[in-house]
Amino acid sequence: MRINQFVARTSALSRRAADAAVAEGRVTLNGRPAVLGDTVSAGDSVTLDGQPAVLAPTHTYLALHKPAGYVSSRRRQGDDPTLYQLLPDSAQNLRLAGRLDRDSSGLVLLSDDGDFIQRYSHPSFNKQKIYQLTLARPLSPADRGRLNAGINLTDGVSHVAVVAATGPHVTVSLTEGRNRQLRRTFGALGYSVEKLHRTHIGAYQLGSLKPGTWREIIPE
Fold first, then answer.
1. Angle between helices 114-121 and 15-23 (to 10 degrees)
2. Is 118 helix (H, G, I), strand (E, B) or coil?
3. Global pTM value
4. What is the pLDDT of residue 184?
């Protein structure tokens, strides 16, 4: 196994971050600084930042139904609880793929597999996310067309595809995940999002998972 793949699989680093760790001299192989292109065989000793890197038998992959009111962070923010309070002690080291803001609910994915986190976090992988929104007023046909065409935001054009709309209830999909993107996109058209609920991330869906509960998933 190549050294960058080994580091990614034994840590929460993505493959790209593992490349950088090797290049920066943070990784050793059998006591010497590792270089990109090195391979790791059975019995080899690898460290990352001075700590042994041991290949675990498997990674952990979880789907969580985040309720509104919980923050997507390990640390509490004021009086708001963190979604990690919903997870067992054995899952406290997992990283998030697909954050949701405090007021939003729905599906989030967690893992200690850096490559998995990268695939479901970076927009270049085009993982479709589906959301059910409740607006303060019905979405007009004209604004539905504007959303499908793209809305200019301060950090670039927001491409939101409207899947269905009935009065104030709107189902949309997008492949990005910028900070509060949907709320800002609808806000640019004068709409307030009263509820935001995510049901799908790529091949994963919330299904019957109840708020505040989680289940193990199998990676694609």
1. 120
2. helix
3. 0.74
4. 96
Contact by Cβ (8 Å): 170, 143: no
Note whether 61-123+205-216 and 128-201 share their fold.
yes
Per DSSP, the chain holds a count of helices (H) and strands (E) of 5, 15
Supply the pLDDT for residue 56: 64
- Assign domain 128-201 to a CATH class: alpha beta
Vertex 59: Cα angle to 58 and 63 (nearest 5): 135
- Going across the sheet that includes 27-29, the strands are 32-33, 27-29, 46-48, 51-52
Rounded Cα distance between 78 and 103, Å, is 14
Query: Would you state the structure tokens that stand for residue 39, as one six-digit string?
Result: 């391979």
> What is the sign, positive or negative, of the torsion defined by CA atoms of 175, 178, 183, 189?
negative
Catalytic residue from among 101, 103, 113, 115: 101
Structure confidence at residue 50 (pLDDT): 94
Q: Residue 103 catalytic?
A: no
Burial of 131 (0-12, 13-18, 19+ CB in 10 A): buried
Cα–Cα distance for residue pair 58/117, rounded to 1 Å: 15
pLDDT for the residue 66: 97
Residues of the chain below pLDDT 50: none
Reported as a single tens digit per residue, the pLDDT across 18-74 is 999 999 999 999 999 999 999 998 789 999 999 999 876 578 999 999 999 999 998
CATH architecture of 61-123+205-216: 2-Layer Sandwich (3.30)
